[in-house]
Amino acid sequence: MLGIGVIPSVMLGISVLAMPESPRWLVMQDRLGVAKKVLDRTSDTLEESKTISADIKEAAGIPQDFQDYIVSITQESSDGSGVWRDLFIHPTPTVLHILTAGIGIHFFQQASGIDVVVLYSTRIYEKAGIYSFILITLKV
């Protein structure tokens, strides 16, 4: 019974292996043709694929009429320092909302004591006089 929790993790690990790479990442790795194939496979329509491809090319500074399989992109910073600067020092309003939501969710999860309720649920049910749920939860 203890090992049954491994099953969802193994299934997730196997399914991750089948996931394609991000088209934006592929373009930044100079693999424009592979990015186009991934976009064609994951998009609902061909028009949507072309629109997203045009957005990626614009963001990467690639001309829209460029159709070669491999492209060389000049990258300003490859060490990732710009990402951390944009995240914490000069975040855009959208990034600030995402950052606030993420930190807020984690803070309130810990502050509410949900871990205690989950870990001691069997004892809480016993004290409340509910014995039918004890079979479902793991006795701590």
Describe the structure.
The protein is mainly α and 140 residues long. The protein folds into 2 domains: 1-75, no CATH class; 80-140, no CATH class. The protein is 63% helix and 0% strand. The protein has 8 helices and no strands. Helix 3 packs antiparallel against helix 4 (46-60). One of its GO terms (cellular component) is membrane. This is Sugar transporter.
The 3D shape can be described as elongated
Strand content: under 5%
Radius of gyration: 24 Å
What is the straight-line distance between the termini? 14 Å
* Secondary structure category: mainly alpha
- The residue ranges in which pLDDT falls below 50 over 5 or more consecutive positions are none
Please tell me the total number of domains: 2
Largest beta-sheet characterization: none
- What portion of residues is helical? 55-70%
Q: How many extended strands?
A: 0
Number of helices: 8
Question: Would you tell me the overall average pLDDT?
Answer: 79
Sequence of secondary-structure elements: HHHHHHHH
Pfam family, one: Sugar_tr
Subcellular location: Membrane
Protein name: Sugar transporter
GO molecular function: transmembrane transporter activity
